Amino acid sequence: MIVSHLNLTDFRNYETVDVAMVPGANVFVGSNGQGKTNLVEALGYLSTLGSHRVSTDHAMIRQGRDSAIVRARLENGDRQVLAEVQINRSGANRAQVNRSVIKTRELPRYFSSVLFAPEDLALVRGEPSGRRRFMDELLVQRSPRLSAVMTDYERVLRQRNTLLKSARASGVRGDQLSTLEIWDERLVEFGSLIIEARSQLIAELLPEVAAAYSAIAGADHEASLTTLLSILSTDSRDAEPELDEAATRGGSISATDAGEHFRAALARLRRAELDRGLTLAGPHRDDLVLQLNGLPARGYASHGESWSFALALKLASAEVLRRESPSGDPVLILDDVFAELDQSRRARLASAVEGFEQVLITAAVLDDVPAELAGHIVRIRAGAIEEDA
């Protein structure tokens, strides 16, 4: 799959812009603050319904405007698709494919991309919430139906937490809170599906991460992934738990097994949850531990190792998506990546990505981009295409 044309209206600093793209490498060059990252952010949003820079959609709407429009023409062989999303400051966002209205959450089934940016260093060094978001966004790209499951889980979680807080305030305990059991079952129903899907995803990512890290770093380091499940832990603190060894899980877990462990955890943690007014087990509290040579990368990896690990996660994601996608390779987006790498790692990364159907690269300085990737060059200045070569 490739993007042949991108049109933006009132998106970030663009009043309107049209950009033509080609198969292979496309390089967006411009000084900081000119708008090159805004272009790839728009495409990232089209495939994940989220931004790698901000947590709310409103920040992407041009100041003083009520909405922003992202429109992309996608090509896969002889097939063309026009995908559009309107991001609204008030009211629900709207989406269309080939001018027909669709549910916004269905957009990822039409366009697949993997974006790597400096912010992704937080996958290695940041909090568990970022790693959960990484897994869930990739899951939705693979199977858009899981978006509804995740939405249902978050809704039930909010309702259950509200009930727990109300019970704490009123002093209700034990069997008096029979309503909680109803929410328990719904939480387990949706949560078990998420746990199963995440565990299967990690099992598939593991060999790809190891191969990608070796290709990028060129060092004798073994990169691995370990899942930590809160439903297997005895930790009941309010904060993101440093899960104990019992919560470590290798390989995949079925929804049935996850459901059994989930119910047992809720029963075990019932008193602590009532005391705190908070749900203390479930996929909303799980983590993905990244390891180098058996040690947690968070806290042990150097800056270069952390950067390479985060990039390996994204390259592994792209490999998993391309392996099973009927629409070809995902579009690979590298946002301001090469400036952070030394010459040898730049060359290795170029070798790792040149086989993808389309690679979009942003750079402040063209010389930072390896010559083999400096194909179609688009120069950006002050929210406008200055030159297209």
What would you say this structure looks like, in words?
The protein has two domains: 2-112 and 325-388, P-loop containing nucleotide triphosphate hydrolases (Rossmann fold), CATH 3.40.50.300; 142-290, Glutathione S-transferase Yfyf (Class Pi), Chain A, domain 2 (Up-down Bundle), CATH 1.20.1050.90. The mean pLDDT is 89. The protein has a six-stranded antiparallel sheet, with helices on one face. A six-stranded mixed sheet has the order 8-13-14-3-15-16, with helices on both faces. A four-stranded antiparallel sheet has the order 10-9-11-12. With 389 residues, the chain is of the alpha+beta class. The longest helix has 39 residues, at 179-217. 40% of the residues lie in helices and 24% in strands. Strand 6 (94-97) and strand 7 form a beta hairpin. It has helices at 36-48, 122-125, 128-142, 146-170, 179-217, 255-268, 270-276, 297-300, 303-324, 343-353, and strands spanning 2-11, 14-20, 24-29, 67-76, 79-88, 94-97, 100-102, 113-116, 223-228, 248-249, 287-292, 295-296, 331-335, 358-363, 376-381, 384-388. The radius of gyration is 22 Å and the shape is globular. Belongs to the RecF family. It holds the Pfam family SMC_N. It comes from Glaciihabitans arcticus. This is DNA replication and repair protein RecF. The RecF protein is involved in DNA metabolism; it is required for DNA replication and normal SOS inducibility. RecF binds preferentially to single-stranded, linear DNA. It also seems to bind ATP.
